[in-house]
Amino acid sequence: MEIIKTVKQMQQAAHAIRTGGESIALVPTMGFLHEGHLTLMRVGKEHCDRLIVSIFVNPTQFGPNEDLEAYPRDTEGDLRKAENVGVDLVFMPSAREMYPQGAQTSVVVKDLPRHLCGLSRPGHFDGVTTVVAKLFHMVNPHVAVFGQKDYQQLAVISRMVMDLDMDIQIIGVPTVRERDGLAMSSRNSYLSAEERQSALSLKKSLNLAERLFNEGERRAQAVKDFVQSYILEHPHTEIDYIALCDPVTLEDVNTLTEGTLVALAVRVGKTRLIDNARLRKQKKSKKQ
Amino acid sequence: MEIIKTVKQMQQAAHAIRTGGESIALVPTMGFLHEGHLTLMRVGKEHCDRLIVSIFVNPTQFGPNEDLEAYPRDTEGDLRKAENVGVDLVFMPSAREMYPQGAQTSVVVKDLPRHLCGLSRPGHFDGVTTVVAKLFHMVNPHVAVFGQKDYQQLAVISRMVMDLDMDIQIIGVPTVRERDGLAMSSRNSYLSAEERQSALSLKKSLNLAERLFNEGERRAQAVKDFVQSYILEHPHTEIDYIALCDPVTLEDVNTLTEGTLVALAVRVGKTRLIDNARLRKQKKSKKQ
To answer: Is A15 touching B (CB cutoff 8 A)?
Structure first.
């Protein structure tokens, strides 16, 4: 497994792969890899000849009061896991390599960030789209793989790729969960044992929303109220948002339909967790 | 000479050229081609195996009170000229093909547009960088060629390419002029005979600035005043800006040095013209 730290070497390596007639899958990560990331990598491997993983804790997508400094890091563990999954190349640039002095260009998606996480994390998605556009130009992938856990991120990146005519296929992979339902996230490592119990309320409340929908409830506000009450029954929880929205525009809906996105951001202690689900009609209603 | 009108076909054609091991030069234009454009094309041909020219009058780089509707067009003449120069492929998408409904992504360079033309044309450079980024993703060129007449545009695009790590060489080509010194521009076609005479004051005032510099003048304000007086002596002229600035940051300078950029935008009648020069020390002073 090759490790590259400079943009120039990365572009040369990507060029060599393409010239050799092979295809490239990219999985961009911020490291501290867990089973969710490894699943993205396995999907990437299925689609292309070569699998490239980037590890970069991107400072521009953290707000001034967010957890950039505290964000968990484990380079040695990451490299071992990547190698085990069969990654061909890990690209891990420094912040200075990624953002040389004088850099002043950003890629901005206008409307999609005005919802959900974009509201409580101003500038976050500008940081995401800019770094992902840069990574795409560095790695020149045929396919890039992202998790559906970060639903809005996936939507924003897909929009960017479409709007800027990037010749890249974006693949979204269903959220990977712990056995008890908690969506995998590097930030789960912040949780105390008690907080971790409360964190289960996110996935359980998504199940609750789906059950209400399958029982015939179509009023978004009613479901939202139920979900909110349910989560707040658990200690240490504080709601950032509960949204029932259109899965394409991310605009709030009043009336639920099949496919409506239920998206949550909840603080559990000091840790901000997100989760989401699309409402589906169950074949065997009420049973899940 | 091939003519392509859809993004998909353009990407396929570019992919086929690259797969065949050939290099691509792109000259982006808004059509109504003149000798300036043809010079860019000849430079492109020297650098690459295949020469692609785009013709697209980009609505997003025109302000609400600018000349989008009136902008001169001559598709038939353009295609004839392109063919004569040896263009391999002309890409001429419609506005709807370029900006499908729902598009909401832009590429924004922050600081460089806060000078010169960016001040009187708010949003102009966002339109330029976004469409050029899109064209780069469509045509996937090794080299792209732009005129130095649009100095700020060249600076902004070069910055974008660097900041977003686009693997493209940007080449700037010196301004091509009419025999009497007028910088070639599609907008020259708007000028009446009398206005055209007044328009010569732009280039002449640049020569005047250089002469003052070579006579020892180092005060930017003094040169600016001279240039302004000179231009305003000519009928139908109205100054948009006269700037003496750093050629990299485009920030105003107080003291002139070799390489200082002198940049002008002047309305002659209703037509807005631009021109620029870098101050050079003459070997034989005062003679030119």
So the answer is: yes
Chain B residues in contact with A167 by the CB 8 A cut-off are: 11, 15, 137, 140
Report the residue of chain B nearest A160, measured CA to CA.
Answer: B105
Rounded Cα distance, B115 and B112, in Å: 6
Contact A267, A242 (CB under 8 A): no
pLDDT at B286 over 70: no
Ranges in chain A annotated CATH 3.40.50.620: 2-173
Kindly give, in sequence order, each residue whose CB lies less than 8 Å from that of residue B77, ignoring residues fewer than 6 positions away.
B33
The architecture in CATH of the region A2-173 reads 3-Layer(aba) Sandwich (3.40)
Strands A237-245 and A261-268: antiparallel
| Any A CB within 8 A of B7 CB | yes
pLDDT tens string, chain A, 288 residues long: the values are 999 999 999 999 999 999 999 999 999 999 999 999 999 999 999 999 999 999 999 999 999 999 999 999 999 999 999 999 999 999 999 999 999 999 999 999 999 999 999 999 999 999 999 999 999 999 999 999 999 999 999 999 999 999 999 999 999 999 999 999 999 999 999 999 999 999 999 999 999 999 999 999 999 999 999 999 999 999 999 999 999 999 999 999 999 999 999 999 999 999 999 999 999 998 764 544
Rounded-to-integer distance, Cα A209 and Cα A86, Å: 38
Query: Six-digit token pair at A201?
Result: 């309320």
Query: Is residue A260 a contact partner of residue A242, using CB atoms and an 8 Å limit?
Result: no
The pLDDT score that the predictor gives to residue A284 is 66
If one counts every other C-beta atom within 10 angstroms of the C-beta of residue B38, the result is 19
Q: At B267, is the secondary structure helix, strand, or coil?
A: strand
Q: Does A111 touch chain B (CB under 8 A)?
A: yes
Tell me how close the Cα of A73 comes to any Cα of chain B, in angstroms: 26
- Distances in Å between the Cα of A143 and the Cα atoms of A92, A113, A166 are 19, 23, 11
Best to test chain A binding among B22, B96, B104, B140 (most A CBs inside 10 Å) = B104
Identify whether the C-beta of residue A25 lies closer than 8 Å to the C-beta of residue A50: yes
Q: How far apart are CA B245 and CA B279, in angstroms?
A: 10
The yes/no answer to whether this complex scores an ipTM above 0.90 is yes
Number of neighbouring beta carbons within 10 Å of residue A178 = 17
CA–CA min distance A263, chain B (Å): 22
- Residue A30 in contact with residue A40, Cβ under 8 Å? no
CATH 3.30.1300.10 residue ranges of chain A are: 186-277
Report the alpha-carbon angle A114-A117-A121, nearest 5: 85
Exactly one of A37, A115, A142, A234 is catalytic; which is it?
Answer: A37
DSSP string for A182-196: PBP-GGGGG--HHHH
Q: Which superfamily does CATH assign the domain made up of A186-277 to?
A: Pantoate-beta-alanine ligase, C-terminal domain (3.30.1300.10)
Locate B103 and state its tokens.
């598009």
Q: Is B169 on the interface with A (CB under 8 A)?
A: no
Name the DSSP class of B61. Answer: G
Structure token pair of residue A14:
């990507």
